[in-house]
Amino acid sequence: xxxxxxxxxxxxxxxxxxxxxxxxxxxxxxxxxxxxxxxxxxxxxxxxxxxxxxxxxxxxxxxxxxxxxxxxxxxxxxxxxxxxxxxxxxxxxxxxxxxxxxxxxxxxxxxxxxxxxxxxxxxxxxxxxxxxxxxxxxxxxxxxxxxxxxxxxxxxxxxxxxxxxxxxxxxxxxxxxxxxxxxxxxxxxxxxxxxxxxxxxxxxxxxxxxxxxxxxxxxxxxxxxxxxxxxxxxxxxxxxxxxxxxxxxxxxxxxxxxxxxxxxxxxxxxxxxxxxxxxxxxxxxxx
Length: 287
Ligand code: PAF
Prior knowledge:
By secondary structure, the chain is α/β, with parallel strands linked by helices. It is built from ten helices and nine strands.
């Protein structure tokens, strides 16, 4: 059984709680989220419980990672339900700061990560990864956990966070946790809530296309050709547009032609009012 879930709203209270645990020799895991929690987030909490003695989650819908025409104001917010879900998963503490606590008047610093932030979501959502990098750096410095867990569904985000933690010598281990999927393969996402029943029926085509490209790459196919076919299939299924569908090197996210190293196929596509992203690992030599 979990202990009861306390909620703290200031960095001072968060630090005091984590310091208390650290002083007792306990390891602390941290799961940053934007709320609207689903099984994917709870899997992060459970993975945190395997790695550490205490798990802290944060819920903060970070305004700086949304573009002016994105879904910040309509992003689902459900703190009470999120707190209950976290408690049920065994989480020990919820950090739910206000926007003013995170960005007090006069706030003027941005963390910008080069290389892995460029291309893919970095092209389609200008400024997004600066917002993510800045808030994640702040959250890690505020919480000072031993390990921080992030979902692999946001593969490029994970690469950006790994890079900034290495580059800025942030004393934390970063753990990526595999994507949790619905029975039909659709990656769990808070944004799936935007889909109508008929859109929801179309959405799994993304995962099917990723698998098809992975198979083609394993058989020696050319990434650009396979991705062009995949793009056409996504549009035929009823998506409005495909922001990108690309095969990249798994760690550095460099473009690749054929499967000559561990790779990741990444996609972002718009289905009615929802922008869905997903990705799949593909390893050479497993034909
Ligand atoms: O993946 C998310 O939910 C967010 O980008 C994160 C890492 C919590 C930063 O706001």
